[in-house]
Write a structure and sequence with these properties.
This protein is of the alpha/beta class. It contains eight helices and six strands. The protein is globular and about 40 Å long.
Length: 205
């Protein structure tokens, strides 16, 4: 490849990394793999996140019913709760809301006591807001290191308020798939970004 073309590729890669916020936060706000992903409310959002994690080849374990007694601190660095209460799913699993809240609260406590990072995520938007889902978020807020939230779930400023209260980052995205850009930023997945960009840029030159 001509050196000029290579320079152009690198230039556009840096521009796109900058536009998605890759350089915005200091190291204190970087999170590390492996990830442990679980639901907080048993809605389909956690499974949706795993599909994106697969696409990005992130190192993760998924367990919708993860229990603190089974949480091995050596198996993960970041615990992600995907919040969204589904009364139907809880009922099908014979789980009460109180039991679900206690499960995720104990997980968060266990993670923080082990020095791990905790992220609270809303990937399904406004459909996963409401008194029950908000109760789960408020339960997890004292332990959260960041919020990744679809923007329509924050129309009333709920997530803005909790992020400001606990002084942790809030990242908003428009569509479910757009959480990919947030993951790139915070997990520093430059390999994924370059694999995404370079073939397309080469094809144009």
């Amino acid at each position: 490849m001509h050196k000029t073309h290579l320079f152009i590729l690198l230039f556009f890669a840096i521009l796109i990394m900058s536009s998605c916020g890759y350089f915005k936060y200091p190291r204190a706000y970087e999170f590390k793999e492996p990830l442990m992903i679980t639901s907080a409310g048993q809605s389909p959002g956690a499974l949706q996140l795993t599909l994106i994690a697969d696409m990005m080849e992130l190192d993760y374990t998924f367990d919708n019913l993860l229990n603190s007694d089974c949480l091995n601190s050596s198996s993960y660095n970041t615990l992600i709760f995907v919040v969204g209460v589904s009364a139907k799913a809880l009922g099908a699993l014979y789980i009460s809301l109180d039991d679900e809240i206690e499960r995720v609260r104990h997980l968060a406590i266990e993670a923080k006591s082990a020095g791990k990072s905790v992220i609270v995520c809303n990937i399904e938007g406004a459909s996963r807001r409401g008194p029950w889902s908000d109760l789960v978020v408020n339960t997890l807020s004292p332990y959260s290191d960041a919020y990744f939230v679809r923007s329509d779930a924050n129309q009333d400023g709920f997530f803005t308020n909790v992020s400001e209260k606990y002084k942790v980052p809030l990242e908003l995205f428009e569509k479910g798939i757009d959480i990919r850009d947030i993951l790139i930023k915070f997990f520093g997945d430059t390999d994924y970004l370059m694999n995404l960009l370079v073939p397309n840029l080469i094809a144009r030159h």
